[in-house]
Write a structure and sequence with these properties.
This protein has nine helices and four strands, in the order αβααααββααααβ. With 189 residues, it is mainly alpha-helical.
């Protein structure tokens, strides 16, 4: 004798749709598959220009900034630092996140405190207390920002000839506020 229900197929489907009969084993919904990992990723501390350009909305100015920092030996310890540095809108940041991979090369990454310090506007006393830099480096920072406000971390690194470790400690801890246009000055390294 067959193991199926004795009702005709149409009556069985009506009763299943109304919930009076359980669905047939082959008609039970299968659990959703986990989301597929992205087909490509960007190692933010070693990415090439072409890899950065794969990210939606990554402008040439962003690519240039990231490559300049990379050439200067700077590394990111978390995606949030990259997103903050580039001032990405939330919807664009969410589109980037699945593709970003952070690999730290070398010793353990620094842990940045908050809130960010505005290097273009902070009082010298605040800079001294927050940065804990040698006096001559602080003087150069103040002199350079008087000539022209800093645009970003790469600009700061190049104009003050900062080593990568110093710049890495600033990621996520500083910002550059409102910038006013000024003459472009060559780095003095």
């Amino acid at each position: 004798m067959a193991r199926g229900h004795w009702l005709d197929p149409l009556a069985r489907k009506v009763l299943q749709a109304m919930g009076e009969l359980p669905p047939e084993p082959s008609a039970r919904p299968t659990p959703a598959a986990p989301p597929e990992p992205p087909s490509w990723v960007v190692d933010v501390n070693r990415a090439s220009a072409s890899q950065w350009r794969q990210l939606p909305g990554c402008s040439e100015a962003m690519v240039d900034l990231l490559l300049r920092l990379q050439r200067g030996g700077v590394q990111f310890s978390q995606a949030e630092d990259l997103i903050q540095l580039l001032d990405l809108p939330p919807e664009l940041a969410e589109r980037w996140r699945p593709h970003l991979v952070i690999h730290w090369y070398g010793d353990a990454p620094p842990q940045p405190p908050a809130p960010p310090l505005d290097l273009n506007a902070a009082a010298p006393e605040r800079l001294t207390a927050a940065l804990l830099w040698p006096a001559d480096r602080l003087q150069r920072l103040i002199q350079e920002r008087r000539r022209r406000p800093f645009d970003n971390l790469a600009d700061l690194q190049e104009r003050l000839c900062l080593p990568p470790e110093v710049v890495e400690q600033l990621i996520g801890r500083v910002r550059f506020g409102e910038r006013r246009p000024g003459p472009s000055l060559p780095p003095g390294c």
